[in-house]
Amino acid sequence: MSQLIKMLAISIMVFVPISSHSHDGEKHSLIGESKADKLDQCVEPTEVMQKEHFEFLYHQRENTVEKGIRTKNHSLANCIDCHVSYDEKGKAIPVNAEGQFCQTCHVKTAVNIDCFSCHATVPRDNSSKIKSTGYNQNIHIESTANNLVEYYKETNYEK
Q1: Per-residue pLDDT at 130
Q2: Cβ atoms 80, 122 nearer than 8 A
Q3: Can you tell me the distance from the alpha carbon of 77 to that of 159, in angstroms, rounded to the nearest whole number?
Q4: What is the CA radius of gyration of the chain?
Q5: Is the pLDDT confidence value at 105 over 90?
C-alpha cells in the first residue's frame, strides 16, 4: 500500500506542475503602487509571466553572465524598476518585503526567492551608479579588486 502511495505522489509531482496553480486568475493586492499597476500586461502576456517568469530570468542570467549579452526586456533590474511599490512618502518598498510583489506570490506558492541575496530589491537611483568612463571606472575596478583580495584573505582561499 505504501508503495502505491509513493507512486501516486510521484505521479502527481511529475504531471501536475506547481506553477500551473500559482495564481488561478487572482489579482495581486499589494501595499503601495507601482508602474506595473498602471499597465495592462508585462513584457509578456500576464498569464505567461505568472507561470514562466523564472524561465525568462534564468535565460537572461545565462545570456548576461555567460555570453555578456545585456538586454532590459527580461532583466531582473527592469522587473524591479517596474514592479516595486512606493509608500506614501515616495520611498521604494523592497519587492521581497512582506505584502509586496515577489514575496506575496512566492510565499503563497512556497517557493524560495534567492535572487535578492545578491540583487537589489529596489531600483537604484542614478547617483548610486558609477559612471563607466574615466576616473570613476578606475575607482570601481580598484574597489572591486580590493574587495576580492579581502574576501580571499578572510576565507583562507588557496589554489
Answers
A1: 37
A2: yes
A3: 34
A4: 20
A5: no
Q: How many angstroms separate the CA atoms of 12 and 18, rounded?
A: 10
* DSSP H helical ranges for the chain: 2-15, 46-61, 67, 76-83, 101-108, 134-154
Q: What is the pLDDT of residues 121-157, one digit of tens each?
A: 999 864 333 333 344 444 556 667 677 777 777 777 6
In order of 6, 22, 112, the CA distances from 12 in angstroms are: 10, 16, 21
Give pairs for 119-122: CB < 8 Å, separation 24+.
119/76, 119/77, 119/80, 120/77, 120/80, 121/80, 121/84, 121/94, 121/95, 121/96, 121/97, 122/80, 122/84, 122/92, 122/93, 122/94, 122/95
Residue written as grid cell 495592462: 40
Angle CA 110–113–119, to nearest 5: 170
Threshold 0.85, pTM exceeds: no
